[in-house]
Amino acid sequence: MPVDLARAAALRREIERHNYAYYVLDQPTIPDAEYDRLFRELQALEAEHPELATPDSPTRRVGGKPLDGFAPVRHVVPMLSIRTETDTEASGAQAFDARVRKELGLGESDPPVDYAAELKFDGLAINLRYELGVLVQAATRGDGETGEDVTQNIRTVHAIPLRLHADKPPVVLEVRGEVFMRRDDFERYNAKQREAGKPTLVNPRNGAAGSIRQLDPAIAAQRPLSFYAYGLGEVQGWTPPPTHSATLDALEKLGVPVCAERITGRGAAALIAFHDDIAARRDSLPFDIDGVVYKVNRLDLQRELGFVTREPRWAVAHKFPAQEQLTTVLGIDVQVGRTGALTPVARLAPVFVGGVTVTNATLHNQDEIDRKDVRVGDTVIVRRAGDVIPEVVAAVIERRPVPEPPRFNILQSYPVCPECGSHVVRLEGEAAVRCTGGLYCPAQRKQALLHFAGRRAMDIEGLGDKLVDQLVERGLVHSPADVYGLGLDTLAGLERMAEKSAANLLAAIEASKATTLARFIFALGIRNVGETTAKDLARHFGSLAALITADEAGLLAVRDVGPVVAQSIRQFFAEPHNLEVVNKLRAAGVHWPESTGVQQSAGILAGKTLVLTGTLPMLTREAAKEMIEAAGGKVAGSVSKKTDYVVAGEEAGSKLTRAQELGVTILDEAGLLALLESQEQ
Ligand code: IVH
Q1: What spacing in Å lies between the alpha carbon of 632 and ligand 1's midpoint?
Q2: Which site from 117, 454, 545, 613 is most exposed, i.e. has the minimal number of CB atoms within 10 Å?
């Protein structure tokens, strides 16, 4: 054998071995770069010696020349369809078993029938014809008698072997199965298309069917498809094993992909168990299925049962409820979420999908509406999978009403929040359109209150989830300001609220009035303003008035504040509803020490290092630290020559002794407060 010929054959074997390991076994054997190198070497050899190219060469997987059309292929053994049980109950399996037993003449005392059960894949049926082990032709089902020759496209499906793994392959072996697209491949492909500004696939099923029907195999080659075998067509020179399940095992040994989600079992009970198991796991499978298929396992019994009107008596499909349906969009409105995001929702003509009647489906956000170009009046595909909220998958553009309805734009249709009338904005770089009335908007009330009362915000102990729910639902609290108007009678009347806990809560509410500017800013729940930013803002501006009136340049001068945060802050205080709540809070007695901020003065403790030791009579350590930081000081953990002040409380220990040794100024709590107040004058 000439060297080149031997090398080409060796390369083909090696590349296909890696292909099989990667695409069928899901166990990659070599790095991609190495695979590419082998592939290019083979391509170069074949280009130099075209006579070396064989029909089973992996180089043929990349797609050949575009076709004018597909040639017809007559199936030697017709490709039949199977009877479908549309009911979703166990009775489907029982009715099938009863029919089979009757046809076989089995009585009640005869043993149960052995069945095989497998998945009903949702793709495109294909017949693969292997002659002496080499894939020579692939055809679609067509009308069952005559299909189309899609060999070029099928060669691009890496999981399909171009040569069977057998030393003595059958003379003819036709493998039947389904070409489909896995969900992760579908998502990845669409993401890539979207990035490139190219059209996306509507769903995995259309992805698979559309790819195989592509006249240009180079396009088909870019679509990631998979394949599972479920049966045989014409066979010559090979005796299949005596059962369906053993036949699939044999195909697997020949290198043909067979799905592992299959069972064999006795009687209807085994089928029902399989049906229920798969129905429960449907959404976590890596690909879409539309049901399960039951088959009599013994091939001799299959032959005995035969066919009626193009459907075998030995098999039945048990369909799950369809997860996609067509319907029309009656209108588009928005729902305001807990965080103020306006989610567009399509109001639909009622449609039964995924087992329930659906009348609304989410459109996610403006970008999704634009991408799918969904308009009022459109016919759309609606999907509901498992417990996931229904979504509009795509608009069927061919069915768009004439004249064309206008495009839908959230900001144009909803310039103000439908819940509270506050202005609606879209921040740079954000997908969501949001209501700016965070403190006032009923949709955001619970969220805003919980955040306001949080430990690191106003720290109102006892004002948690359950209580916030009750206060809001009974209309007792509309905004955080109303918390300060609550009385003992009102609180004691609530569920799970004894007089004692009501009194404790009132005390906590009262205590929260004395706070810091940083906590207050954080408590407002301004989007993108976390605890650290709130501290930076408080230190920088010193007073709430300075923050409210700051322009963009002023805000950008604050450490770590960028354009998005600055925009959030400006939009929050530009909303009159929010200012109203802020004013009510101050009128209710919420207060904090204000300063002129670091813009004018550096703060009384600027550049100073303080150490806290012992227990202070009034302030918690955290509060003392915040106040020191607000005045520009730094709190350190140990005393050194660089320490400016040591603030000592009760039971101060070694730190106090060390301060005395080093001659550092020692303050008590009152001394610290006096120092801080001297700055506020
Ligand atoms: S057996 C003679 N098994 O369902 C019986 N079909 O109506 C031949 N399908 O379009 C079919 N998964 O492509 C069989 N595990 C499975 C299947 C399956 C999907 C499709 C098949 C055909 C339709 C049958």
Answers
A1: 74
A2: 545
Count of CB atoms within 10 A of residue 607's CB?
Answer: 10
Domain closes at, from 273, 297, 319: 319
Domain range spanning residue 290?
87-121+260-319
Q: What is the CATH number of the domain that holds 379?
A: 2.40.50.140
Query: Would you tell me how many other CB atoms lie within 10 Å of the CB of residue 337?
Result: 15
Distance, CA of 514 to CA of 458 (rounded, Å): 9
pTM above 0.90, yes or no: no
Segments of the chain scoring below 50 in pLDDT: 600-601, 681
Place of tokens 């016919």: 379
> Could you report the per-residue pLDDT of 460-510, keeping only the tens digit for each?
999 998 999 999 989 999 999 999 999 998 998 888 888 889 999 999 999
Helix pair 621-630, 669-680: axis angle to 10 deg: 30
CATH number of the domain at 56, please.
1.10.287.610
Residue 599 has a pLDDT of 53
**Per-residue pLDDT, 681:** 41
pLDDT tens track for 353-378 = 988 899 999 999 999 999 889 999 99
Q: Are both 442 and 523 inside the same structural domain?
A: yes
Burial (CB count <10 Å: 0-12, 13-18, 19+), residue 112: middle
Ligand 1 centroid – CA 317 distance (Å): 8
Helices (H), 458-562: 465-473, 488-492, 499-512, 517-523, 531-541, 544-549, 552-556
Q: Is 120 a catalytic residue?
A: yes
Q: Could you tell me which of 583, 564, 574, 465 has the C-alpha nearest to residue 520?
A: 583
- Pocket residue to mutate for ligand 1, from 96, 115, 118, 120, most atoms within 8 A of Cβ: 120
Asked if 604 and 678 count as a contact pair (C-beta separation under 8 A), the reply is: yes
